[in-house]
Amino acid sequence: MRTIETIAEVKEARREFQGVVGFVPTMGYLHEGHLALVRRARMESDYVVVSIFVNPTQFGPQEDFQRYPKDIPRDLGLLKKEGVDLVFIPSVEQMYPAGFSTYVEEGRLTRRREGASRPTHLRGVTTVVAKLFNIIEPTRAYFGQKDAQQALVVKKMVDDLNMNLEIVAVPTVREADGLAMSSRNTYLNAQERQAATILWKSLCLAEEVWAQGERDANRVREKMTKLIESEPLASIDYVSIADAWALGELEEILPPALVSLAVKIGPVRLIDNVTLR
Amino acid sequence: MRTIETIAEVKEARREFQGVVGFVPTMGYLHEGHLALVRRARMESDYVVVSIFVNPTQFGPQEDFQRYPKDIPRDLGLLKKEGVDLVFIPSVEQMYPAGFSTYVEEGRLTRRREGASRPTHLRGVTTVVAKLFNIIEPTRAYFGQKDAQQALVVKKMVDDLNMNLEIVAVPTVREADGLAMSSRNTYLNAQERQAATILWKSLCLAEEVWAQGERDANRVREKMTKLIESEPLASIDYVSIADAWALGELEEILPPALVSLAVKIGPVRLIDNVTLR
After folding, report:
1. Superfamily of chain region A183-276
2. Surface of B (64-123) touching A: CB under 8 A
3. C-alpha dihedral over B35, B41, B42, B46, to 10 degrees?
4. How far is CA A88 from the centre of its chain?
5. What is the pTM of this model?
6. Which one of the listed residues B25, B33, B34, B109 is annotated catalytic?
7. Which fold has domain B2-170?
8. What percent of chain A clears pLDDT 70, i.e. is strictly above it?
Protein backbone atom coordinates (compact mmCIF):
# COMPACT_ATOMS: atom_id res chain seq x y z
CA MET A 1 0.00 0.00 0.00
CA ARG A 2 1.43 3.35 -1.10
CA THR A 3 0.84 6.57 0.81
CA ILE A 4 1.13 9.77 -1.24
CA GLU A 5 0.81 13.38 -0.13
CA THR A 6 1.11 15.43 -3.34
CA ILE A 7 -1.26 15.81 -6.28
CA ALA A 8 1.53 15.48 -8.85
CA GLU A 9 2.67 12.15 -7.42
CA VAL A 10 -0.80 10.70 -7.13
CA LYS A 11 -1.55 11.65 -10.77
CA GLU A 12 1.67 9.89 -11.77
CA ALA A 13 0.83 6.80 -9.71
CA ARG A 14 -2.66 6.76 -11.24
CA ARG A 15 -1.21 6.40 -14.75
CA GLU A 16 0.10 2.97 -13.80
CA PHE A 17 -3.38 1.69 -12.90
CA GLN A 18 -4.85 -0.09 -15.93
CA GLY A 19 -8.32 -1.36 -15.13
CA VAL A 20 -11.17 -0.54 -12.77
CA VAL A 21 -10.26 2.01 -10.08
CA GLY A 22 -12.52 2.24 -7.03
CA PHE A 23 -12.23 5.40 -4.94
CA VAL A 24 -13.38 6.13 -1.39
CA PRO A 25 -13.03 9.77 -0.31
CA THR A 26 -12.91 10.15 3.49
CA MET A 27 -12.05 12.68 6.18
CA GLY A 28 -10.21 9.96 8.10
CA TYR A 29 -10.81 8.71 11.65
CA LEU A 30 -12.19 5.64 9.96
CA HIS A 31 -14.97 3.45 11.33
CA GLU A 32 -16.91 0.43 10.07
CA GLY A 33 -19.00 2.68 7.85
CA HIS A 34 -15.91 3.74 5.90
CA LEU A 35 -14.63 0.17 5.82
CA ALA A 36 -17.92 -0.99 4.28
CA LEU A 37 -17.22 1.46 1.43
CA VAL A 38 -13.66 0.21 1.08
CA ARG A 39 -14.76 -3.45 1.05
CA ARG A 40 -17.36 -2.76 -1.61
CA ALA A 41 -14.72 -0.94 -3.67
CA ARG A 42 -12.25 -3.79 -3.15
CA MET A 43 -14.81 -6.31 -4.37
CA GLU A 44 -15.58 -4.38 -7.57
CA SER A 45 -12.18 -2.91 -8.56
CA ASP A 46 -8.70 -3.79 -9.75
CA TYR A 47 -7.27 -0.90 -7.73
CA VAL A 48 -8.64 0.79 -4.62
CA VAL A 49 -7.71 4.37 -3.76
CA VAL A 50 -8.72 6.03 -0.47
CA SER A 51 -8.25 9.70 0.31
CA ILE A 52 -7.98 11.13 3.81
CA PHE A 53 -8.56 14.86 3.82
CA VAL A 54 -10.37 16.98 6.38
CA ASN A 55 -11.77 19.48 3.88
CA PRO A 56 -11.89 23.01 5.32
CA THR A 57 -14.33 24.35 2.69
CA GLN A 58 -17.11 22.08 3.89
CA PHE A 59 -16.97 23.36 7.48
CA GLY A 60 -18.73 26.53 8.58
CA PRO A 61 -16.79 29.16 10.59
CA GLN A 62 -18.32 27.98 13.91
CA GLU A 63 -17.95 24.29 13.14
CA ASP A 64 -15.50 21.60 14.24
CA PHE A 65 -12.82 21.82 11.52
CA GLN A 66 -10.03 22.52 14.01
CA ARG A 67 -10.96 19.73 16.38
CA TYR A 68 -12.15 17.12 13.87
CA PRO A 69 -10.76 13.81 15.19
CA LYS A 70 -7.62 12.48 13.54
CA ASP A 71 -5.56 9.28 13.78
CA ILE A 72 -3.67 8.68 10.55
CA PRO A 73 -1.51 5.75 11.76
CA ARG A 74 -4.59 3.86 12.89
CA ASP A 75 -6.41 4.70 9.61
CA LEU A 76 -3.47 3.42 7.57
CA GLY A 77 -3.41 0.17 9.57
CA LEU A 78 -7.10 -0.39 8.87
CA LEU A 79 -6.77 0.39 5.16
CA LYS A 80 -3.78 -1.88 4.74
CA LYS A 81 -5.78 -4.77 6.17
CA GLU A 82 -8.51 -4.13 3.59
CA GLY A 83 -6.04 -4.44 0.72
CA VAL A 84 -6.12 -0.79 -0.34
CA ASP A 85 -3.56 0.06 -3.06
CA LEU A 86 -3.08 3.78 -2.61
CA VAL A 87 -3.88 6.27 0.15
CA PHE A 88 -3.86 9.95 -0.78
CA ILE A 89 -3.32 12.29 2.20
CA PRO A 90 -2.91 15.82 0.87
CA SER A 91 -2.26 18.91 2.96
CA VAL A 92 -4.66 21.85 2.91
CA GLU A 93 -2.01 23.80 0.95
CA GLN A 94 -1.93 21.07 -1.72
CA MET A 95 -5.67 21.16 -2.19
CA TYR A 96 -6.26 24.89 -1.67
CA PRO A 97 -3.15 26.86 -2.63
CA ALA A 98 -3.17 30.63 -2.02
CA GLY A 99 -5.57 32.36 -4.40
CA PHE A 100 -7.84 29.33 -4.86
CA SER A 101 -11.11 30.69 -6.26
CA THR A 102 -13.12 28.10 -8.22
CA TYR A 103 -16.11 26.30 -6.74
CA VAL A 104 -18.56 23.71 -8.00
CA GLU A 105 -22.07 24.27 -6.73
CA GLU A 106 -25.30 22.36 -7.11
CA GLY A 107 -28.28 24.67 -6.71
CA ARG A 108 -31.45 22.58 -6.32
CA LEU A 109 -30.91 19.57 -4.09
CA THR A 110 -28.76 21.68 -1.78
CA ARG A 111 -31.36 24.26 -0.84
CA ARG A 112 -32.88 22.52 2.20
CA ARG A 113 -31.75 20.24 5.02
CA GLU A 114 -27.91 20.25 5.22
CA GLY A 115 -27.81 23.04 2.64
CA ALA A 116 -30.01 25.32 4.73
CA SER A 117 -28.43 24.44 8.08
CA ARG A 118 -24.81 24.57 6.84
CA PRO A 119 -24.88 27.13 3.99
CA THR A 120 -21.50 26.49 2.35
CA HIS A 121 -21.13 22.84 3.42
CA LEU A 122 -22.39 21.14 0.27
CA ARG A 123 -20.53 23.58 -2.01
CA GLY A 124 -17.37 22.56 -0.14
CA VAL A 125 -18.23 18.90 -0.67
CA THR A 126 -18.92 19.20 -4.43
CA THR A 127 -15.78 21.29 -4.90
CA VAL A 128 -13.40 18.94 -3.09
CA VAL A 129 -15.00 15.87 -4.63
CA ALA A 130 -14.70 17.36 -8.15
CA LYS A 131 -11.02 18.01 -7.44
CA LEU A 132 -10.45 14.49 -6.09
CA PHE A 133 -12.24 12.96 -9.08
CA ASN A 134 -9.94 14.87 -11.44
CA ILE A 135 -6.88 13.83 -9.45
CA ILE A 136 -7.79 10.14 -9.01
CA GLU A 137 -9.89 9.59 -12.18
CA PRO A 138 -11.78 6.69 -10.63
CA THR A 139 -14.13 4.31 -12.43
CA ARG A 140 -16.44 4.37 -9.41
CA ALA A 141 -16.58 6.39 -6.20
CA TYR A 142 -18.28 5.18 -3.03
CA PHE A 143 -20.34 7.29 -0.64
CA GLY A 144 -22.20 6.38 2.53
CA GLN A 145 -25.99 6.45 2.49
CA LYS A 146 -25.77 8.05 5.96
CA ASP A 147 -24.99 11.33 4.19
CA ALA A 148 -27.89 10.78 1.81
CA GLN A 149 -28.17 14.35 0.59
CA GLN A 150 -24.42 14.46 -0.02
CA ALA A 151 -24.53 11.27 -2.10
CA LEU A 152 -27.45 12.61 -4.18
CA VAL A 153 -25.79 15.98 -4.72
CA VAL A 154 -22.53 14.34 -5.82
CA LYS A 155 -24.49 12.12 -8.23
CA LYS A 156 -26.24 15.20 -9.61
CA MET A 157 -22.89 16.96 -10.09
CA VAL A 158 -21.47 13.94 -11.93
CA ASP A 159 -24.51 13.84 -14.25
CA ASP A 160 -24.71 17.60 -14.83
CA LEU A 161 -21.00 18.03 -15.52
CA ASN A 162 -20.71 14.78 -17.55
CA MET A 163 -17.97 13.39 -15.31
CA ASN A 164 -16.62 10.01 -16.32
CA LEU A 165 -17.39 7.86 -13.32
CA GLU A 166 -20.18 6.14 -11.43
CA ILE A 167 -21.32 7.04 -7.91
CA VAL A 168 -22.22 4.14 -5.63
CA ALA A 169 -24.18 4.75 -2.41
CA VAL A 170 -23.52 2.12 0.27
CA PRO A 171 -25.97 1.32 3.12
CA THR A 172 -25.36 2.92 6.51
CA VAL A 173 -23.49 0.83 9.07
CA ARG A 174 -24.96 1.03 12.58
CA GLU A 175 -23.95 0.29 16.15
CA ALA A 176 -25.83 -2.52 17.92
CA ASP A 177 -28.39 -0.01 19.24
CA GLY A 178 -28.96 1.53 15.79
CA LEU A 179 -26.81 4.68 16.06
CA ALA A 180 -25.31 5.39 12.63
CA MET A 181 -21.52 5.11 12.61
CA SER A 182 -19.91 8.54 12.43
CA SER A 183 -16.53 9.97 13.29
CA ARG A 184 -18.40 12.64 15.22
CA ASN A 185 -19.85 10.04 17.62
CA THR A 186 -16.52 10.32 19.37
CA TYR A 187 -17.62 13.76 20.63
CA LEU A 188 -20.46 12.19 22.67
CA ASN A 189 -20.05 11.58 26.42
CA ALA A 190 -21.67 8.49 27.92
CA GLN A 191 -24.97 10.21 28.66
CA GLU A 192 -25.14 11.84 25.23
CA ARG A 193 -24.23 8.54 23.58
CA GLN A 194 -27.29 7.01 25.20
CA ALA A 195 -29.50 9.95 24.21
CA ALA A 196 -28.23 9.75 20.59
CA THR A 197 -30.24 6.59 19.99
CA ILE A 198 -33.28 8.88 19.68
CA LEU A 199 -32.36 9.55 16.01
CA TRP A 200 -32.63 5.91 15.03
CA LYS A 201 -35.70 5.40 17.24
CA SER A 202 -37.50 8.25 15.48
CA LEU A 203 -36.56 6.84 12.05
CA CYS A 204 -37.87 3.43 13.12
CA LEU A 205 -41.09 5.13 14.23
CA ALA A 206 -41.43 6.67 10.75
CA GLU A 207 -40.94 3.26 9.13
CA GLU A 208 -43.45 1.72 11.49
CA VAL A 209 -46.27 4.21 10.87
CA TRP A 210 -45.50 4.12 7.13
CA ALA A 211 -45.81 0.30 7.24
CA GLN A 212 -49.12 0.75 9.06
CA GLY A 213 -50.42 2.80 6.13
CA GLU A 214 -49.81 6.41 7.20
CA ARG A 215 -49.31 8.60 4.08
CA ASP A 216 -49.57 12.08 5.58
CA ALA A 217 -46.03 13.43 5.83
CA ASN A 218 -46.93 16.11 8.37
CA ARG A 219 -48.36 13.56 10.77
CA VAL A 220 -45.22 11.45 10.48
CA ARG A 221 -43.01 14.51 11.03
CA GLU A 222 -45.10 15.43 14.09
CA LYS A 223 -44.80 11.96 15.61
CA MET A 224 -41.03 11.92 15.04
CA THR A 225 -40.69 15.43 16.46
CA LYS A 226 -42.68 14.53 19.56
CA LEU A 227 -40.55 11.45 20.18
CA ILE A 228 -37.28 13.36 19.76
CA GLU A 229 -38.50 16.15 22.02
CA SER A 230 -39.10 13.55 24.75
CA GLU A 231 -35.31 13.26 24.97
CA PRO A 232 -34.08 16.18 27.15
CA LEU A 233 -30.58 16.30 25.56
CA ALA A 234 -31.92 16.45 22.00
CA SER A 235 -32.72 19.57 20.00
CA ILE A 236 -34.01 19.27 16.44
CA ASP A 237 -32.33 21.02 13.56
CA TYR A 238 -34.66 19.56 10.92
CA VAL A 239 -36.91 16.58 10.28
CA SER A 240 -37.50 16.14 6.56
CA ILE A 241 -39.63 13.81 4.46
CA ALA A 242 -38.77 14.34 0.81
CA ASP A 243 -38.93 12.51 -2.48
CA ALA A 244 -35.74 10.45 -2.69
CA TRP A 245 -34.63 11.82 -6.10
CA ALA A 246 -35.11 15.56 -6.24
CA LEU A 247 -35.47 16.05 -2.46
CA GLY A 248 -38.66 18.07 -2.71
CA GLU A 249 -40.39 18.18 0.68
CA LEU A 250 -43.56 16.01 0.61
CA GLU A 251 -47.07 16.45 1.95
CA GLU A 252 -48.22 13.01 0.84
CA ILE A 253 -45.63 10.28 1.18
CA LEU A 254 -44.97 8.60 -2.15
CA PRO A 255 -42.21 5.99 -2.22
CA PRO A 256 -39.29 6.15 -2.44
CA ALA A 257 -39.25 8.90 0.19
CA LEU A 258 -36.18 9.97 2.13
CA VAL A 259 -36.83 10.56 5.84
CA SER A 260 -33.83 12.48 7.11
CA LEU A 261 -33.04 14.43 10.21
CA ALA A 262 -30.40 16.46 11.97
CA VAL A 263 -30.50 16.57 15.76
CA LYS A 264 -28.14 18.11 18.26
CA ILE A 265 -27.39 15.86 21.20
CA GLY A 266 -25.96 18.30 23.70
CA PRO A 267 -23.37 20.16 21.60
CA VAL A 268 -22.97 17.40 18.97
CA ARG A 269 -24.90 17.63 15.70
CA LEU A 270 -25.80 14.21 14.26
CA ILE A 271 -27.62 13.23 11.07
CA ASP A 272 -29.31 10.05 9.90
CA ASN A 273 -31.94 8.86 7.42
CA VAL A 274 -34.02 5.96 6.11
CA THR A 275 -35.76 5.50 2.77
CA LEU A 276 -39.44 4.51 2.78
CA ARG A 277 -40.16 2.15 -0.13
CA MET B 1 -14.36 14.03 -40.41
CA ARG B 2 -17.11 12.74 -38.11
CA THR B 3 -19.98 14.90 -36.92
CA ILE B 4 -21.62 13.80 -33.66
CA GLU B 5 -24.59 15.29 -31.83
CA THR B 6 -24.89 13.26 -28.63
CA ILE B 7 -22.69 13.13 -25.54
CA ALA B 8 -22.82 9.32 -25.36
CA GLU B 9 -21.57 8.93 -28.94
CA VAL B 10 -18.80 11.46 -28.58
CA LYS B 11 -17.56 9.76 -25.39
CA GLU B 12 -17.54 6.48 -27.28
CA ALA B 13 -15.68 8.00 -30.25
CA ARG B 14 -13.17 9.55 -27.84
CA ARG B 15 -12.19 6.12 -26.52
CA GLU B 16 -10.75 5.27 -29.93
CA PHE B 17 -8.34 8.25 -29.85
CA GLN B 18 -4.98 7.07 -28.53
CA GLY B 19 -2.56 9.97 -28.38
CA VAL B 20 -2.68 13.75 -28.09
CA VAL B 21 -6.16 15.23 -28.45
CA GLY B 22 -6.44 18.95 -29.24
CA PHE B 23 -9.81 20.58 -28.57
CA VAL B 24 -11.26 23.87 -29.82
CA PRO B 25 -14.58 24.85 -28.22
CA THR B 26 -16.53 27.32 -30.38
CA MET B 27 -19.98 28.83 -30.75
CA GLY B 28 -19.76 28.34 -34.51
CA TYR B 29 -20.04 30.93 -37.30
CA LEU B 30 -16.33 30.40 -37.69
CA HIS B 31 -13.84 33.02 -38.81
CA GLU B 32 -10.07 33.20 -39.20
CA GLY B 33 -9.69 33.57 -35.44
CA HIS B 34 -11.25 30.17 -34.85
CA LEU B 35 -9.25 28.67 -37.70
CA ALA B 36 -6.02 29.90 -36.10
CA LEU B 37 -6.98 27.87 -33.01
CA VAL B 38 -7.78 24.83 -35.14
CA ARG B 39 -4.49 25.09 -37.06
CA ARG B 40 -2.51 25.35 -33.84
CA ALA B 41 -4.37 22.32 -32.48
CA ARG B 42 -3.81 20.41 -35.74
CA MET B 43 -0.07 21.14 -35.55
CA GLU B 44 0.27 19.88 -31.97
CA SER B 45 -2.16 16.94 -31.84
CA ASP B 46 -2.86 13.45 -33.14
CA TYR B 47 -6.60 14.15 -33.10
CA VAL B 48 -8.44 17.46 -33.34
CA VAL B 49 -11.93 17.87 -31.90
CA VAL B 50 -14.01 21.03 -32.43
CA SER B 51 -17.31 21.72 -30.68
CA ILE B 52 -19.97 24.05 -32.04
CA PHE B 53 -22.44 25.03 -29.34
CA VAL B 54 -24.13 28.35 -28.74
CA ASN B 55 -24.19 28.10 -24.97
CA PRO B 56 -27.33 29.65 -23.47
CA THR B 57 -25.92 29.90 -19.92
CA GLN B 58 -23.28 32.42 -20.99
CA PHE B 59 -25.83 34.86 -22.43
CA GLY B 60 -27.71 37.37 -20.27
CA PRO B 61 -31.50 37.66 -20.60
CA GLN B 62 -31.24 40.79 -22.77
CA GLU B 63 -28.39 39.46 -24.90
CA ASP B 64 -28.17 38.01 -28.40
CA PHE B 65 -28.58 34.27 -27.71
CA GLN B 66 -31.62 33.97 -29.99
CA ARG B 67 -30.07 35.81 -32.90
CA TYR B 68 -26.46 34.62 -32.56
CA PRO B 69 -25.31 33.99 -36.16
CA LYS B 70 -25.29 30.39 -37.33
CA ASP B 71 -24.12 28.57 -40.48
CA ILE B 72 -23.29 24.96 -39.67
CA PRO B 73 -22.79 23.73 -43.28
CA ARG B 74 -20.24 26.48 -43.90
CA ASP B 75 -18.53 25.78 -40.54
CA LEU B 76 -18.25 22.07 -41.38
CA GLY B 77 -16.74 22.87 -44.77
CA LEU B 78 -14.09 25.06 -43.16
CA LEU B 79 -13.27 22.48 -40.46
CA LYS B 80 -12.99 19.66 -42.98
CA LYS B 81 -10.41 21.67 -44.92
CA GLU B 82 -8.36 22.07 -41.73
CA GLY B 83 -8.21 18.31 -41.21
CA VAL B 84 -10.41 18.19 -38.10
CA ASP B 85 -11.23 14.65 -36.97
CA LEU B 86 -14.41 15.13 -34.98
CA VAL B 87 -17.00 17.90 -34.70
CA PHE B 88 -19.34 17.82 -31.71
CA ILE B 89 -22.61 19.71 -32.26
CA PRO B 90 -24.85 19.05 -29.26
CA SER B 91 -28.35 20.40 -28.80
CA VAL B 92 -29.23 22.56 -25.81
CA GLU B 93 -31.24 19.61 -24.45
CA GLN B 94 -28.14 17.38 -24.63
CA MET B 95 -26.05 19.84 -22.67
CA TYR B 96 -28.71 21.16 -20.28
CA PRO B 97 -31.38 18.52 -19.71
CA ALA B 98 -34.41 19.48 -17.60
CA GLY B 99 -33.41 19.94 -13.96
CA PHE B 100 -29.80 20.87 -14.71
CA SER B 101 -28.49 22.55 -11.55
CA THR B 102 -24.68 22.37 -11.19
CA TYR B 103 -22.42 25.28 -12.02
CA VAL B 104 -18.69 25.88 -11.91
CA GLU B 105 -17.80 29.40 -10.83
CA GLU B 106 -14.52 31.25 -10.49
CA GLY B 107 -14.84 34.04 -7.96
CA ARG B 108 -11.79 36.32 -8.23
CA LEU B 109 -10.80 36.94 -11.84
CA THR B 110 -14.47 37.21 -12.79
CA ARG B 111 -15.39 40.12 -10.57
CA ARG B 112 -14.61 42.99 -12.95
CA ARG B 113 -14.74 43.70 -16.70
CA GLU B 114 -16.83 41.00 -18.44
CA GLY B 115 -17.83 39.63 -15.03
CA ALA B 116 -19.25 42.96 -13.88
CA SER B 117 -20.85 43.88 -17.22
CA ARG B 118 -22.33 40.41 -17.89
CA PRO B 119 -22.98 38.96 -14.41
CA THR B 120 -23.56 35.28 -15.24
CA HIS B 121 -21.54 35.19 -18.48
CA LEU B 122 -18.29 33.78 -17.10
CA ARG B 123 -20.09 31.27 -14.88
CA GLY B 124 -21.79 30.03 -18.05
CA VAL B 125 -18.42 29.77 -19.76
CA THR B 126 -16.69 27.85 -16.96
CA THR B 127 -19.67 25.53 -16.60
CA VAL B 128 -19.97 24.62 -20.28
CA VAL B 129 -16.21 24.34 -20.68
CA ALA B 130 -15.97 22.01 -17.65
CA LYS B 131 -18.69 19.86 -19.22
CA LEU B 132 -16.96 19.83 -22.62
CA PHE B 133 -13.63 18.95 -21.02
CA ASN B 134 -15.24 15.98 -19.27
CA ILE B 135 -16.92 14.87 -22.49
CA ILE B 136 -13.91 15.30 -24.82
CA GLU B 137 -11.06 14.68 -22.32
CA PRO B 138 -8.58 16.68 -24.40
CA THR B 139 -4.83 16.87 -23.85
CA ARG B 140 -4.94 20.58 -24.70
CA ALA B 141 -7.73 23.09 -25.29
CA TYR B 142 -7.28 26.26 -27.35
CA PHE B 143 -8.77 29.66 -26.56
CA GLY B 144 -8.44 32.99 -28.34
CA GLN B 145 -6.51 35.77 -26.66
CA LYS B 146 -9.28 38.12 -27.85
CA ASP B 147 -11.35 36.86 -24.93
CA ALA B 148 -8.41 37.34 -22.58
CA GLN B 149 -10.38 37.26 -19.35
CA GLN B 150 -12.18 34.11 -20.47
CA ALA B 151 -8.88 32.36 -21.24
CA LEU B 152 -7.46 33.34 -17.83
CA VAL B 153 -10.59 32.24 -15.98
CA VAL B 154 -10.61 28.88 -17.77
CA LYS B 155 -6.91 28.41 -16.91
CA LYS B 156 -7.69 29.23 -13.27
CA MET B 157 -10.54 26.72 -13.23
CA VAL B 158 -8.28 24.02 -14.68
CA ASP B 159 -5.63 24.72 -12.03
CA ASP B 160 -8.05 25.03 -9.11
CA LEU B 161 -10.03 21.89 -9.97
CA ASN B 162 -6.92 19.86 -10.97
CA MET B 163 -8.29 19.12 -14.44
CA ASN B 164 -6.06 16.97 -16.62
CA LEU B 165 -5.37 19.21 -19.59
CA GLU B 166 -3.41 22.26 -20.68
CA ILE B 167 -4.98 25.55 -21.79
CA VAL B 168 -3.33 27.29 -24.75
CA ALA B 169 -4.12 30.95 -25.50
CA VAL B 170 -3.66 31.84 -29.19
CA PRO B 171 -3.01 35.41 -30.43
CA THR B 172 -5.93 37.43 -31.75
CA VAL B 173 -6.45 37.43 -35.51
CA ARG B 174 -7.33 40.87 -36.91
CA GLU B 175 -8.81 42.36 -40.06
CA ALA B 176 -6.49 44.52 -42.22
CA ASP B 177 -7.57 47.64 -40.28
CA GLY B 178 -6.96 46.00 -36.90
CA LEU B 179 -10.52 45.05 -35.91
CA ALA B 180 -10.38 41.79 -33.94
CA MET B 181 -12.16 38.94 -35.72
CA SER B 182 -15.46 38.12 -34.02
CA SER B 183 -18.65 36.40 -35.06
CA ARG B 184 -20.46 39.46 -33.70
CA ASN B 185 -18.77 41.74 -36.30
CA THR B 186 -21.48 40.47 -38.61
CA TYR B 187 -23.97 42.62 -36.65
CA LEU B 188 -22.19 45.82 -37.74
CA ASN B 189 -23.55 47.89 -40.63
CA ALA B 190 -21.06 49.64 -42.92
CA GLN B 191 -20.91 52.82 -40.84
CA GLU B 192 -20.57 50.91 -37.57
CA ARG B 193 -17.92 48.66 -39.11
CA GLN B 194 -15.85 51.77 -39.83
CA ALA B 195 -16.44 53.16 -36.33
CA ALA B 196 -15.44 49.82 -34.76
CA THR B 197 -11.80 50.45 -35.63
CA ILE B 198 -11.77 52.81 -32.63
CA LEU B 199 -11.18 49.82 -30.31
CA TRP B 200 -7.93 48.83 -31.99
CA LYS B 201 -6.89 52.48 -32.38
CA SER B 202 -7.29 53.06 -28.66
CA LEU B 203 -5.29 49.90 -27.85
CA CYS B 204 -2.53 51.08 -30.21
CA LEU B 205 -2.57 54.42 -28.41
CA ALA B 206 -2.06 52.62 -25.10
CA GLU B 207 0.88 50.69 -26.55
CA GLU B 208 2.33 53.87 -27.95
CA VAL B 209 2.24 55.90 -24.74
CA TRP B 210 3.49 52.85 -22.81
CA ALA B 211 6.42 52.60 -25.26
CA GLN B 212 7.07 56.31 -24.69
CA GLY B 213 7.49 55.65 -20.98
CA GLU B 214 4.06 56.42 -19.52
CA ARG B 215 3.51 54.33 -16.36
CA ASP B 216 0.42 56.01 -14.87
CA ALA B 217 -2.54 53.74 -15.64
CA ASN B 218 -5.12 56.48 -15.06
CA ARG B 219 -3.49 58.76 -17.62
CA VAL B 220 -3.49 55.93 -20.17
CA ARG B 221 -7.13 55.12 -19.43
CA GLU B 222 -8.02 58.81 -19.84
CA LYS B 223 -6.25 59.08 -23.19
CA MET B 224 -7.96 55.94 -24.47
CA THR B 225 -11.33 57.13 -23.17
CA LYS B 226 -10.95 60.50 -24.84
CA LEU B 227 -10.06 58.90 -28.17
CA ILE B 228 -12.99 56.47 -28.02
CA GLU B 229 -15.37 59.29 -27.08
CA SER B 230 -14.29 61.14 -30.22
CA GLU B 231 -16.15 58.45 -32.16
CA PRO B 232 -19.87 59.40 -32.09
CA LEU B 233 -21.14 55.79 -32.53
CA ALA B 234 -19.02 54.46 -29.65
CA SER B 235 -20.08 54.19 -26.02
CA ILE B 236 -17.67 52.75 -23.47
CA ASP B 237 -18.63 49.84 -21.22
CA TYR B 238 -15.20 49.61 -19.57
CA VAL B 239 -11.53 50.43 -20.18
CA SER B 240 -9.33 48.33 -17.92
CA ILE B 241 -5.61 48.19 -17.25
CA ALA B 242 -4.90 45.22 -15.01
CA ASP B 243 -2.07 42.91 -14.09
CA ALA B 244 -2.15 40.13 -16.67
CA TRP B 245 -2.28 37.25 -14.13
CA ALA B 246 -4.74 38.06 -11.36
CA LEU B 247 -6.51 40.88 -13.25
CA GLY B 248 -6.21 43.36 -10.40
CA GLU B 249 -6.84 46.90 -11.70
CA LEU B 250 -3.52 48.86 -11.75
CA GLU B 251 -2.55 52.42 -10.81
CA GLU B 252 1.05 52.02 -11.89
CA ILE B 253 1.55 49.94 -15.02
CA LEU B 254 3.87 47.02 -14.34
CA PRO B 255 4.36 44.54 -17.18
CA PRO B 256 2.80 42.26 -18.17
CA ALA B 257 -0.37 44.36 -18.02
CA LEU B 258 -3.60 43.56 -19.81
CA VAL B 259 -5.26 46.55 -21.43
CA SER B 260 -8.79 45.46 -22.23
CA LEU B 261 -11.96 47.22 -23.21
CA ALA B 262 -15.60 46.72 -24.10
CA VAL B 263 -17.22 49.30 -26.31
CA LYS B 264 -20.65 49.45 -27.84
CA ILE B 265 -20.64 50.52 -31.49
CA GLY B 266 -24.25 51.46 -32.02
CA PRO B 267 -26.08 48.42 -30.58
CA VAL B 268 -23.15 45.99 -30.94
CA ARG B 269 -20.92 45.28 -27.95
CA LEU B 270 -17.31 44.51 -28.93
CA ILE B 271 -14.28 43.62 -26.82
CA ASP B 272 -10.56 43.61 -27.47
CA ASN B 273 -7.24 43.75 -25.61
CA VAL B 274 -3.47 43.99 -25.82
CA THR B 275 -0.80 43.02 -23.33
CA LEU B 276 1.87 45.58 -22.42
CA ARG B 277 5.20 43.83 -21.89
Report:
1. Pantoate-beta-alanine ligase, C-terminal domain (3.30.1300.10)
2. 99-109
3. -150
4. 18
5. 0.96
6. B34
7. Rossmann fold (3.40.50)
8. 100
Q: How far apart are CA B201 and CA B225, in angstroms?
A: 11
Nearest CA in chain A to B131: A161
The residue extents of the domains of chain B are: 2-170, 183-276
Mutate to test the interface with B, among A11, A126, A162 (most CBs of B within 10 A): A162
Tell me which chain A residue has its CA closest to the CA of residue B8: A162
The two domains A2-170 and A183-276 share their CATH topology (first three levels equal): no
Looking at residue A97, its amino acid is P
Give residue-wise pLDDT tens across range A164-220: 999 999 999 999 999 999 999 999 999 999 999 999 999 999 999 999 999 999 999
Q: Is B163 on the interface with A (CB under 8 A)?
A: yes
CB pair distance less than 8 Å for A162 and B134: yes
The rounded radius of gyration (Å) of the Cα atoms in chain A is 19
Tell me, what's the ipTM? 0.95
Residues in B 229-248 with any Cβ partner in A closer than 8 A: 246
Angstrom distance (rounded) from CA A130 to CA B134: 11
Q: How far apart are CA B202 and CA B222, in angstroms?
A: 11
pLDDT band at A50 (very low <50, low <70, confident <90, very high): very high
Cβ-nearest to A162 among B7, B101, B164: B7
Is the separation of the CB atoms in A57 and A128 below 8 Å?
yes
Rounded to a whole number, what is the distance in Å from the CA of A102 to chain B's nearest CA?
4
